[in-house]
UniProtKB/TrEMBL annotation:
Membrane topology field: Single-pass membrane protein
Protein family per UniProt: Belongs to the cytochrome P450 family.
Source species, domain of life: Eukaryota
Record-given protein name: Cytochrome P450
Biological processes, Gene Ontology terms: brassinosteroid biosynthetic process; brassinosteroid homeostasis; sterol metabolic process
Lineage start: Eukaryota, Viridiplantae, Streptophyta, Embryophyta, Tracheophyta
Entries under InterPro entries matching the protein: Cyt_P450, Cyt_P450_CS, Cyt_P450_E_grp-IV, Cyt_P450_sf
Keywords, in A-Z order: Heme, Iron, Membrane, Metal-binding, Monooxygenase, Oxidoreductase, Signal, Transmembrane, Transmembrane helix
Amino acid sequence: AISYRRRPTTSRRRRLPPGSSGFPIIGETLHLFLPSTDFDLIPFLKSRLRRYGPVFTTNLFGKQIAVSADSELNHFLLHRDQPLIETWHTDTSAGLFGDVDINLASVHKYVRFATLRSFGVQELRERRLPEMERRVHVALRDWSERGSVEVKYATATMVLNYGAKLVFGYDPQHYSKKKLVDLYSSITKSLISIPLKIPGTTHYKCLKEKEKAVKLIRKEFRKRQASFFSTKERSKGDDLLDHAIRELNDGEKPYSLSLTEDFIVNFIFALNFVSHDTIANIMTLAVKLIEDHPLVLEELVAEHEAILKARESSSVGISWDEYKSMTFTLQVINETLRLGNLGPGILRRAVQDIHTNRYTIPEGCGILIAISAMHLNPDTYKDPLTFNPWRWSRVSPSDRMYKDLMPFGWGMKQCAGSEYARLFVATFLHVLVTKYTWKRIKGGNLRRNPLLIFDQGLHVKFNEKEITQQPPSN
Ligand code: HEM
């Protein structure tokens, strides 16, 4: 077992984890871009873990990084968080999202609080479900009327339009210029790109798209700010922006944070991004995986038809209790999240020397908490590359399988949108399997660059199910 100390033992003074640093400056960065086969770990992680064991050092993007696939160490680090470690970004994502410094305690608390106020369990339970389900119905009906649909783009549109509505009242019909989803789609493409602000580079184009998205959000901010002062009546609006504007103008300083226009606009920009791309990826993966596993589809259909059958005729849509009773669906979602691994892991930086009984991770060193490697560890998950939702039946929260499943992170900074994400995917699957069938037309091949992408997209034909006439009962 690993143990932790405040100071290094003299015999093991500052022993770094094993590893290699590659070429000067670029280090081993290029290895990151060697693609994986399907769901497997990227070859770079796989080969280094085999060579050095679960904790090793490398040099990526010109920075020294300790990579940990060690369950115990990762739980410890995420549990302790500050003052031991802090959130960290690559220069590329810092350029994009850096205006919101999540390491400041006041910023972190406000971001969490404001996200949960719009997307937390209480809101989901009391208000969000009917509208969420309605939007899924409308989207699927629309897709079924088309020849073929690219699922990632289609789900991203559905999820972003709903999320952005909750955040700043976005309605795509009111915007004639480029749609928000298209701006964000181009940003996704360059999340891992070399951060050169030179015209023509991917990163440069991406920053330009960010400016357009920010402009659109800022325009809405200023419109509401003006009406806050011009109308005598207090706005009763309650999207995230309405709350922020009231807090700003009332000088409330939530969590001692002085809100500013720039902070609010940039926070909304970042939240729109994290709240849709992730969910759209998981929905797309689920569509692919379920089609590839007919027994999974069969059990899903059975679960959801049973829900419809048991439902009182007066209720119109999914209830919270029904969602919580979707045992198999939640297993399918867990398994999709485990295999899906949208990125290699979570980035942190050591704020002070971290001594374990084996190594020291030095102050300033980046830390990649390699969640993807934990999710595909054969010692924890038998046949880790197999999509097997049944592996989650009868797993209790104290089991290692359960503890090591951390697609949403773990500890103090665990994802504030995790329940919203699960609920959205469950609602989508409910409507999909009860009312539609689907067939892949083309695409569906995965690659990690090292973030998960569908090379040619996933093109699917959706068809509405023929409703079989029930014989009249006597
Ligand atoms: C499948 C979907 C999602 C995945 C896999 C995911 C993953 C993650 C992960 C791994 C973290 C932790 C990062 C860290 O520890 O540094 C995180 C944090 C966060 N996520 Fe998500 N996320 C998802 C959906 C969402 C959604 C839908 C929202 C908003 C509605 C959201 C909002 C946030 C926020 C605000 C944080 C920061 C929390 C904090 O620092 O306290 N995420 N997410």
